[in-house]
Specification:
Layout: E1 2-3, E2 6-7, E3 11-14, E4 19-23, E5 34-37, H1 40-48, H2 55-72, H3 76-87, H4 94-108, H5 112-150, E6 158-162, H6 179-186, E7 191-196, H7 203-213, E8 218-221, H8 225-231, E9 237-240, E10 244-246, E11 251-254, H9 257-266, E12 271-274, E13 280-281, H10 287-290, H11 299-302, E14 303-307, E15 313-317, E16 330-333, E17 340-343, E18 346-348, H12 352-358
Parallel strand pairs: 6-7, 6-9, 7-8, 9-12, 10-13, 12-17
Antiparallel strand pairs: 1-2, 3-4, 4-5, 10-11, 11-16, 14-15, 17-18
Helix pairs in contact: 1-2, 2-3, 2-4, 2-5, 3-4, 4-5, 5-6, 8-9
The structure holds 5-S-methyl-1-O-phosphono-5-thio-D-ribulose.
Family: Belongs to the EIF-2B alpha/beta/delta subunits family. MtnA subfamily.
Site (Transition state stabilizer): 164
Keywords: Amino-acid biosynthesis, Isomerase, Methionine biosynthesis
Length: 366
């Protein structure tokens, strides 16, 4: 999407520098900084420190990490080591393992001397695939927004609510939950987006930055405001992203998503999840019981983070000394609370039947 009139992806390969460039998201929305990734440790740190974040983007970054490792040493041992090292960076988003597996499975069938070039091409392909998947999610989601818009008096905006950042920064381009919003805006359907701040890391600020850059009307709200807005008829549709969706359609996403889904159901508001197929974990049914939830440092809760007066990134303590912070980073919304899944192949029920109808080729894949 555009930043100050220039089109950017959230990462890209610079052929002159022969290296991957990422947008360092820790600095947004304060500063737009680009960072070159130079070592395997840089790749892992970028994911762990959330310079890159969002399930699809983590996956593509890891694929470039495998390509980097193959340049240094294309042996089987180095490939397995890189896989382990990158896989250990973050536990919840399945796209990470999906991309690492896809890369390793292909590389195992390639002679070591060709592995570096094959792995790099695969990473480029995954990046391009991600863009296309998200564009299609936008086209399918647009129809949901259009339908609601058509039921309203002319000129009245469709009011959407979203949680976290499932925007273009969380993918390679378009975003998942935001792609229908960008498509609706570009189709001149009036919309307004309620953007949850998404404590503790305030990914909502990234969403606000994105939507603002695209000229989309939005308001930044506290994480707890959504239920109130729904009770008062101010939300027409909720769309969130997902870090891992099970074969029966349970949705794991940023902490707080579950509460939004409960409030949406209580108020009869459609709750949709934008789901790229690499985010489906076909090996898991019960998301609550089976998906590993990342526990992050309690300091993210006891301190707020931002740009300091001296220009550095820093934190300010908001709790009494010694207070412990509890920081589960994701939760699971059971499929019964999900109205539908917006995928690149269309919209389906959050159920095994729904997903297997759209993805018959993937449902029983090894
Ligand atoms: O911890 P984050 O910022 O990586 O979490 C991101 C989310 O929860 C997104 O909603 C999810 O990855 C979907 S991104 C298209």
């Amino acid at each position: 999407m555009k930043v100050n009139g220039t089109h950017y992806r959230s990462l890209w390969w610079d052929a002159d520098k022969d290296a991957l460039q990422i947008i360092d998201q820790r600095w947004l929305p304060h500063e737009f900084r680009v960072l070159q990734v130079n070592s395997l440790k840089d790749f892992a740190d970028a994911i762990v420190e959330m310079r890159v974040r969002g399930a699809p983007l983590i996956g593509v970054t890891a694929a470039y990490g495998m390509a980097h490792a193959m340049r240094l040493d294309p042996s089987d041992a180095a490939m397995d080591q890189a896989w382990e090292y990158l896989d250990a960076t973050r536990p919840t988003a399945i796209n990470l393992r999906w991309a690492l597996n896809r890369s390793r499975n292909i590389l195992r069938g390639v002679t070591p001397k060709d592995r570096a070039s094959v792995a790099l091409k695969l990473a480029h392909d995954l990046a391009d695939e991600d863009v296309e998947i998200n564009r299609k999610i936008g086209i399918h989601g647009l129809e949901l927004i259009r339908k609601i818009s058509n039921s309203k008096p002319s000129g009245e905006p469709v009011r959407l609510l979203t949680h976290c950042n499932a925007g273009w920064l969380a993918t390679v381009d378009w975003g998942t939950a935001t792609s229908p919003m960008y498509h609706a805006h570009d189709a001149e359907i009036p919309i307004h987006v309620w953007v949850d701040e998404t404590r503790p890391r305030n990914q909502g600020a990234l969403t606000a930055w994105e939507l603002g850059s695209h000229g989309i009307s939005h308001s930044y709200i506290t994480d707890n405001a959504g239920g109130h807005l729904m009770q008062h008829g101010q939300v027409d549709l909720v769309i969130t992203g997902t870090d891992r969706t099970t074969r029966r359609g349970d949705v794991c996403n940023k902490i707080g998503t579950y509460l939004k889904a409960l409030a949406a159901q209580d108020n009869n508001i459609p709750f949709y999840v934008a789901l790229p197929s690499p985010t489906i974990d076909w090996s898991v049914d019960d998301g609550v019981a089976e998906i590993p939830i990342e526990e992050r440092s309690g300091v993210e809760i006891t301190h707020v983070q931002g740009k300091m007066a001296d220009g550095s990134l820093g934190t300010t303590q908001v709790t009494p000394d010694g207070t412990l912070g509890g920081n589960p980073a994701f939760d699971v919304t059971p499929n019964r609370l999900v109205t539908g899944l917006i995928t690149e192949r269309g919209v389906c029920d959050a159920s095994t039947e729904g997903l297997s109808t759209l993805f018959p080729d993937l449902v029983n894949a090894p």
